[in-house]
Design a protein that fits this description.
The structure is a homodimer of 398-residue chains. By secondary structure, chain A is α/β, with parallel strands linked by helices. Chain A has eleven helices and 13 strands. At the A-B interface, helix 5, helix 8, strand 9, helix 9 and strand 12 of A face helix 5, helix 8, strand 9, helix 9 and strand 12 of B.
Chain lengths: 398, 398
């Protein structure tokens, strides 16, 4: 008897549930599984046996427009089983109980490490369960894939929002230095996506990402130049920018009113720094809506997220294991992509950084190459079902 | 010769430019004006003679989806002309030069004070120019109107975003206390609108607005109760909440790392306060997108914004002056509204607060009456023209 288990892990994206839909619809249609389960809250919930049975009469279509991880997520990392195999034993015990023969795990680089560890362990103990990874992260920092599902929709939201902020802020004759903080602790892919706003007429004047060491004095000179010239200045900055010694700029901010180091807030830090020097500033942190704004999903991203789920089911049915589904760009001009498999040991726990060829010479904005890379990913919208003027979301009957 | 002048003032809304479209299309069709001008940057730009001529062959249709104030805004208040009439004299001089006979000023309560002062001054010196006010503010704090254009779209954005944040944050088993900061220095209309998120399944557990004095200890007890019960807590808070002595809670936050009082940030303040007490928290400030997210405009709001612009032109052509266009709700069940005129001296410079009947007994959430009031305002969406996966915006050929 074949039983499929699917679970979600790490930070949600606007299309993670579309990958789930691709998995479930393909698995139902394949007619090869006696049971299809969603493991709630990733590996953390699997360890607690919180299994949710997908029935063919479930209305799953709303998954396409549902934010968050509809089946729950976790940030639980398995230890190396050579040091401690307790959790591994427990997983095998639970998998045996539910007769799980096929396991699809949907996540980012930490989750792919889980896929790697589990598939290695299963091989080592000769446990008969196939494991594949399905990619997901707004950060776009997985190796061996052209891009990751979730990145396109986050980019579309960020570019649209940045443009709207720029149009709004330009309403006044005398403007400010606007500093927009974008997610990305290690990589600048999302912050670079703000550059797409420029196609509407106004976008970021300056872009700072973790891959380029940040110099406060140079930053001040640049914003000051632009502000003097234009009466406005628009800056996009990754939450994770660091100085030349590798210290997070956000950590330079000293104590808050309760005597504690302030959380997050690199835009607030930079804004306060400039206010101190008598500049008129505004800081905006785009925050959770970057990954959860499901009313502005990119159709390309949605279609690819579905394709990854579908491909994962088809390949695991061909007995593939220990790999992750990746997206290949077969043709950039007409934008054609397809799925392949890539070895998980080359992906799990690793990070793909923004290549300097995607940046301009001064490394404070993007190059034309980046626009060519990112623009196809934000194309199109999906129809959103609404009720009472609000989107309708999938909710588990727990 | 009749010449019409239209200008925008105060903080933009997502539909202020739709009111402009209503003005221009109606004025063009009326065929009663030799010239139709937009005064750029409100009264501040008018004083500098920055006039933009609207031609019948302009493509104005994109105004409907353009964020910001497409013709520029200002925060310039005229002094009382009894004390200093210099600016008034200058305005009359410029109006004479451009032969402005009809003036429509689109703004909130400060702008309506400008309308009041100008119309009084024009009467006093017998200057032949009619003046009407067109309402606009996301704050919904203008008197004598059922609601203001801009409020519906801001409410739709806030409710949708709040729901998405709640779905996202619920992805994990162990959640946080999420504090979402919403615009509103004096009134809580926008913050109350977050309650509409609940119709999607998840919304704010607690709502705090400037009309109700804020007690930090009570707040902590409430969030703690809810967090213990649900493992999550969602709070919507107006930027302008105050303690019983009328001090802004955001001003209680002491100095930042540069030794200055921190700007804004009541959500950050409350979040830091709770973190200090060992709660797991997250603060989110919705910021400018609340008023500029033109890709999620409410159709009802858009239609009414247009209607206000149109009605203003029709009424000023009937020689009405010294009044503001208001919206009346003729029927709530089928939601039918119409425009009327109301005397500007009862509106300008005044504030409409949230009535306690719109709140629950504890005054930490809304009542059913508020839902009935606000829900019709967020209905429907407008079609958004896009290019390259991004919305297209109207841009002045300056």
């Amino acid at each position: 008897m074949n039983n499929l288990l699917y679970a979600q892990s790490g930070g949600p994206t606007a299309v993670i549930n579309t990958t789930a839909l691709g998995v479930f619809e393909t698995a139902i249609n394949a007619n090869k599984f006696a049971n299809i389960y969603a493991g709630l809250n990733g590996i953390e919930g699997i360890l607690k046996e919180t299994f949710y049975k997908i029935e063919s009469d479930c209305d799953l279509s709303l998954l396409k427009q549902t934010p968050g991880a509809a089946f729950g997520s976790c940030r639980h990392n398995l230890t190396d089983y050579k040091n401690d195999d307790n959790e591994y034993k427990k997983i095998v015990e639970i998998f045996k109980k539910y007769q799980v023969t096929h396991f699809l795990y949907n996540g980012g680089n930490d989750s792919m490490e889980t896929v790697l560890k589990l598939s290695n362990y299963f091989k080592e103990i000769n446990f008969d369960c196939l494991v594949l990874g399905l990619p997901k992260t707004i950060d776009n920092d997985l190796l061996l894939t052209d891009h990751t599902p979730g990145y396109g929709s986050a980019s579309k939201y960020i570019a649209t929002t940045f443009a709207q902020i720029a149009y709004d802020a330009r309403s006044y004759i005398k403007g400010r230095i606007n500093i927009v903080e974008i997610m990305g602790r290690d990589t600048g892919w999302l912050t670079c996506a703000s550059s797409l706003a420029s196609l509407t007429g106004y976008g970021p004047d300056l872009i700072y990402i973790p891959e380029v060491s940040f110099e406060l004095d140079k930053f001040e000179i640049k914003v000051s130049e632009i502000y003097k010239k234009n009466g406005h200045c628009f800056v996009a900055v990754s939450e994770g920018i660091k100085d030349k010694d590798g210290r997070f700029i956000s950590s330079l901010s000293s104590n808050d009113s309760f005597g504690h180091a302030q959380l997050g807030g690199v835009a607030t830090y930079l804004s306060n720094y400039l206010t101190e020097k008598k500049y008129k500033t505004r800081s905006i942190e785009l925050n959770l809506p970057q990954r959860s704004f499901s009313t502005l999903i990119s159709k390309v991203d949605s279609d690819e997220a579905y394709m990854c789920g579908k491909y994962g089911v088809l390949k695991i049915l061909e007995n593939e294991t220990g790999q992750m589904v990746v997206i290949e760009r077969d043709d950039n001009k007409n934008y054609v992509t397809s799925c392949k498999l890539a070895p998980i040991e080359k992906i799990g726990g690793q990070v793909r950084y923004v290549d300097y060829s995607y940046l301009n010479e001064e490394k404070n904005n993007v190059s034309k190459k980046f626009i060519n890379y990112a623009l196809p990913l934000i194309q199109g919208e999906i129809d959103i079902k609404t009720k009472d003027g609000l989107p309708i979301f999938f909710k588990l009957n727990k």
